[in-house]
Amino acid sequence: MDREVPSPSVAVRGWDEQLRARGYRVTPQRQLVLEAVARLDHATPEEIGAQVQQTARGVNISTIYRTLELLEQLGMVTHTHLGHGAPTYHLASHADHVHLVCRDCGRITEIGPDAIRPLITALDERHGFETDVGHLTVFGRCQECRPR
Q: What structural domains and CATH numbers belong to the chain?
């Protein structure tokens, strides 16, 4: 990634208050999943599960999926599709970016929405289309792979 990712403790600060305020219990599994999402940044449920199981072996993949679904419903995490496989999850507070995915090496680069502002504006003005930047992924070849 080209973006600096905050430490998990900084990234998930206040998560327990957010859950309690919405009537949900604060569980160790939820904390571990949220910390894994913050630490891994753009991770599949299986990758998140592997990270969680390093600390809590008894947490199974169905718990990971249910927890990710809840955290997404609550607006704490979001997912995107960076290819044909499983979705990848990251903190919703870091979702305002476009993903550039190199088809050759798999590198993922994040750019701010300002880089594509003319496209966003054109889609809105010409088609009345509101772009969901957090789910926008552009596939191509990165600078290093391009000369090949």
A: 8-93 (1.10.10.10), 98-140 (3.30.1490.190)
